[in-house]
Amino acid sequence: MDIYASDEEKGEDIKRWWRENGRSVILGCVLGGAVIFGGRYWVNYKQTMAENASLTYQQVSQAIQQQQVATADKLTQKLLSDYSNTPYAVFAAFNMAAEAVKNDDKESAKLYLKWISDHASLAGHLELARLRQVKILIDEAKYEQALELTMQSKSASFSSLFSELRGDIFIAMNKKSDARTAYQTAMVDLETGEPRLTVLQIKLDDLAVENDG
Question: Please, how many CA atoms are within 13 Å of residue 105, restricted to the half-sphere of its CB?
């Protein structure tokens, strides 16, 4: 049996419900539309940002290939400021750091690598930037700074590489016992057959020859 006595009562009940809830329904529709529109806008915005960053990175790469360092630096600075949250900014900074090292401009290289250390979101990028910073510091004979930087690594994937660098630093500091320990530590994390095992063994053998001498 119908719970309403008549169509008129049905109408009155609907009107009453609408008076009590209409504002909430309208607000919900407005908010829902805003969420949908905002979501689409955000997706489009992110896509546009990525496309612009990609284009700028391509221009950086082209400028480097053409040895237009000033142009490459200007474009890279644009990436670092306007598209810092994209991976293209990190890639450009790595490329410019490598180019700076090639041109014996270690100060510029360290600035690019420092930017990566401060802004990169991926652990691999952070560790790679740290590795390259350490190598520059070794070349500058800033051994204490280099050693301190190697100790900041937290990634197991890079532990062997940093241990090897510590060995190289200790060699430069004439701390051969520490160097031997560092090289041996670097070998522990490597699997049989890895090429770096041969390199590390050669470094250990060189230490043994020096001690025999």
Answer: 13
Q: What is the pTM of this model?
A: 0.74
List the chain domain ranges.
23-121, 145-213
- The total of other beta-carbon atoms located within 10 Å of residue 107's CB is 9
Q: Find the Cα–Cα–Cα–Cα dihedral 52, 55, 57, 58, rounded to 10°.
A: 180
Per-residue pLDDT of the chain (213 residues; tens, 9 = 90+): 344 445 555 555 545 555 666 566 566 666 665 555 555 644 555 676 778 888 999 999 999 999 999 999 999 999 999 988 888 899 999 999 999 999 999 999 999 999 999 999 899 999 999 999 999 999 999 999 999 999 998 889 999 999 999 999 999 999 999 999 999 999 998 888 889 999 999 999 988 876 644
Q: At 66, phi and psi to the nearest 5?
A: -90, 10
